[in-house]
Design a protein that fits this description.
The structure holds two protein chains of two kinds. Chain A has helices at residues 43-50, 73-77, 94-104, 109-122, 138-150, 168-185, 196-202; strands spanning 5-14, 17-27, 32-36, 58-63, 66-67, 80-83, 156-160, 188-192, 205-210, 213-214. By secondary structure, chain A is α/β, with parallel strands linked by helices. Chain A has one domain: Rossmann fold, CATH 3.40.50.300. In chain A, the strands form two sheets. A six-stranded mixed sheet of chain A has the order 6-7-8-3-9-10, with helices on both faces. A four-stranded antiparallel sheet of chain A has the order 2-1-4-5, with helices on one face. The longest helix of chain A has 18 residues, at 168-185. In chain B, helix 4 packs antiparallel against helix 7. The longest helix of chain B is centred in the N-terminal third of the chain and has 35 residues, at 2-36. By secondary structure, chain B is mostly helical. The chains are: A alpha/beta, B mainly alpha. Chain A binds chain B through residues 48, 51, 53, 74, 77-78, 80-82, 84, 86, 88, 90-93, 100-101, 104-105, 130-132, 148-149, 152, 158, and chain B through 110, 112-113, 115-123, 126, 130, 133-134, 215-216.
Chain lengths: 229, 216
């Protein structure tokens, strides 16, 4: 089976020094792939390359059989959902934030609202709909950030340590919800994490990076895959 | 008296309002480019713009007057001692103010916001629009500062406009004239009028700014 996404011969250099060198990485449809590695290993760089927000010096990204180029960047980015470590919510209501990606895709406010509302409910933040996004708690904000990505129903979801700033109970609750959502939607996902427990909970496969290179799958990764029963 | 006072006030508002709007048209995109762009010499351009924010109006007036003088390089346009010449000089004063404050406003935003917006599927134009919206309060402050810098200047208006009665006399040049005649009461009344107008316009913009700040 052809992979959904494939990286071939990718090289990213910073100040002349290679920070990411990947000969080949394939991600299958419906797979939840965990990216592990110490700080500075190149995990976030890889995620930005996957999001086409950082263009590599050489190498290609093949998405559903088509090599991506600057001409296809916008269309590609509109099939991807990105959640960074911090929620980075904009000044406006929670609903405004969740509708943002849909509005970028040309949806009217009237058509975007019901879909946004549905995802607010699915992430358990329905009552926050009209609250100013800057006045909600950290855990709530991270749920809004996830809803803002899920509402786009992306083909590929990229998560950069989404539980990074949360305390343990909040992290456990959000992780359980995320696991359920990924299972229900079958969204192909790449998630950066430091936590082996998260790998077990969320991912079907884990790969580790060190000094910008893939160093194989660590042991202890679970066998669960999004969309699996 | 009221007829003349009315036309002086109206001309002041027209000239400075137009100069501010044109400065915004130039300064908003240029300041955005400076804030978001990554290119060699960016710091030098930013430093130059920041220096331009403190340009002495009288020096601007001198340079624009030399350019527009009948024997000068732009003399054929016959703009010297016209309201258009004052607008031109005031743009030179206000555009760096709007540009510099626009760049500062956008640089204060979290740089990762650009990545997040692009990651949500924004085109470059949509991203810039969202960043402007995010920085709308300091951007309004940039607009107010730009207007404030030109409505209150006298040097450039005097040098390129000539303070011609019924043609290029604005509130600030009228104040200078009345003071030179020893008509302090009239000069003071004009000064208060200028202050009152500036206050009303800034109060309006501040209301919009604060209303925007309270909006969820």
């Amino acid at each position: 089976m052809n992979p959904m996404l494939e990286l071939r011969g990718v090289l990213v250099r910073r100040n002349g020094r290679p920070v990411l060198e990947i000969e080949r990485l394939a991600i299958q449809h419906g797979e939840v792939l965990a990216l592990l590695g110490p700080n500075g290993a190149g995990k976030s760089t890889l995620l930005l390359v996957l999001a086409r927000l950082l263009l590599p010096e050489r190498g290609e990204i093949i998405f559903q059989g088509t090599a991506q180029s600057s001409a296809t960047d916008l269309a590609y980015r509109r099939r991807v959902g990105l959640v960074l470590q911090d929620p980075l919510l904009l000044d406006g209501s929670v609903l405004y934030n969740i509708c943002l990606g849909l509005r970028f895709r040309g949806w009217s406010e009237r058509t975007a609202r019901p879909r946004a509302q549905a995802w607010l409910e699915r992430l358990g933040i329905g009552p926050l709909r009209d609250r100013p996004a800057r006045q909600i708690s950290g855990g709530e904000a991270q749920r809004v950030a996830l809803a803002r990505a899920f509402v786009l129903e992306p083909d590929l979801l990229l998560l950069d340590e989404p539980f990074h700033s949360l305390d343990r109970p909040m992290r456990a609750a959000l992780m359980a919800d995320l696991r359920q959502l990924l299972s229900e939607t079958g969204t192909t996902t790449v998630i950066i994490t430091h936590d082996p427990h998260e790998v077990d909970q969320l991912s079907g496969r884990a790969i580790a990076l060190r000094d910008g290179r893939l160093v194989g799958s660590p042991s202890g990764a679970g066998s669960w895959t999004a969309g699996a029963p | 008296m009221f007829g003349e006072l009315g036309s002086i006030t109206l001309l002041s508002l027209q000239v400075s309002g137009l100069a501010t709007l044109l400065s915004l048209t130039l300064g908003l995109p240029f300041g955005t480019w400076l804030a978001l762009g990554r290119f060699r010499g960016r710091s030098l351009v930013l430093s130059t713009i920041n220096t331009g924010m403190a340009l002495p109006p009288v020096v601007v007036g001198l340079v624009v007057a030399i350019l527009l003088w009948r024997s000068g390089p732009l003399g054929e346009l016959r703009l010297i001692y016209t309201p258009a010449a004052i607008v031109l000089a005031q743009i030179v004063i206000a555009a760096p103010v709007v540009t510099g404050l626009t760049a500062a406003a956008l640089q204060q935003l979290d740089p990762r916001l650009q990545l997040q917006l692009l990651g949500l599927g924004a085109s470059r134009g949509q991203m810039i629009w969202a960043l402007w919206r995010e920085a709308r309060l300091p951007l309004l402050a940039a607009l107010m500062a730009g207007f404030g810098s030109v409505i209150s200047e006298v040097g450039a208006s005097m040098m390129v406009g000539g303070n011609i009665r019924g043609q290029t006399r604005v509130l600030t040049t009228a104040i200078v004239l009345e003071t030179s005649r020893g008509e302090f009461e009239r000069a003071m009344a004009l000064g208060l009028l200028l202050l009152g107008i500036t206050f009303l316009i800034n109060a309006g913009l501040t209301w919009i700014q604060q209303h925007g700040a309270r909006r969820p």
